[in-house]
Write a structure and sequence with these properties.
The complex is a heterodimer of chains A (195) and B (236). Chain A has ten helices and no strands. Chain A is globular, with a radius of gyration of 20 Å. Chain B has a domain of 131 residues. The chains are: A mainly alpha (195), B mainly alpha (236). Chains A and B meet through helix 2, helix 3, helix 7, helix 8 and helix 10 of A and helix 1 of B.
Amino acid sequence: MAGDDELITLAKRGDSEAWRALYRAHAGRLLVWLSTRPTGDSSEGADDLAAQAWLTAAERIHGFTGTSDDFAGWLFGIARNHGANTRRRGQRRQTHPTDLGVADELGTLPSVPGPEASYAADDWIVRALSVLPERERDVVGCREVVGLDVATTAAALGISAVAVRVAHHRGLKRLRSVLDDGQAQDGSSARSLSR
Amino acid sequence: MNLRTPIPTLEPDDAFVARLSALAAAGAPVATGRRSPVSAWRVTLAAAGVAAILVGVAWLAGLSPTGSPQPAPGPATSPPAPESTTSSGSPGFSNPGTSGPGAFDPAVPGVASTASTQPPAGQSSGQHSGQHSGQPGRHAGEPGKGAGHSAGATPGQGAGNSNGAGSTSGNAGGNNAGGNPDPGKSQGKNKDKDKDRGPNAHAGDHPNEHATTKSNNGNHSPPGPKPDRGPRSRVD
């Protein structure tokens, strides 16, 4: 791995502008990638995981060596670990979303607009990736949805580049077959309706 | 099928960026400078304390065997240390320093293992040696016993060999001294000779102790000074 570039060096010193630049470069991709993965806990969303990942990255930045591009894989790996912890914690203590409409009627909880509307456009991607196994979903999410390269994806997921390529290939093949089956079913149902 | 999603450019909150910067600055490795004098004094004090404890333990360990003789755990196998020391210096013993540890200490592996693995004669001899090795008066006062049992051994030689071996007073001829503690059987019999020719576990370990009476080995001290050495070793 190459040495630190200037941006990482400044970030290690605590320079706020360097952190701002890093955030601009990677926060959007991280949030989109996390939104394609189930958190396992309905009380924590992708925003929460992303914020935790950034804070952890700021604490551990001195143990990181690499360029700004390498920082993306390292940051995604931290977020993946946080997601795994959240999933395990959610399995231990099940939390279920409360019907806010009933709560509003009771007047106990205020109504807060959520970010669901902004994610509605990407909802079909989440549904499409949900049919894949976990590794293939993560790889396809990193490679196709976010656009990371193989090396960064391998660093983010903690697997080798060969495993990334294999999982990417299998995931796309499986996704294609599922979508074709879905289109065939939709076509048959449309034909039956037209009759 | 295009899964690529347009990546939004998110602008961070100032407070969040300030927190990230603070965390990164707080985690910066501090340059390791020279140790403070207080910590150096602590290290020195700890080292001195450990050294003092070690010296005290060593002093107590060295004091315990000489200052207060410990009671024998078993009457048959462990004689009191001072008596054994006295017996090792009985008449005819030329080198008390060589035979001292192997002569009286029942905890010596060679003696203990011999006593435990030997035939009944060996077992009895082990106990016998343990009991009688610390009785100088008996050894000195029964020279005729050893002389009579050993082939051609003089009384002085018999007594000296047995004492040097640390086995018993009946170790005739000194052939069994230390190596084959079979004094009981050897008394009044010539089995002693045959046993001595067999494999001796301690052969060569204590040359002074394995001197035969026939060869009148030079390891023996001359008969003349024997009476003088007895009292000297008793003093030891």
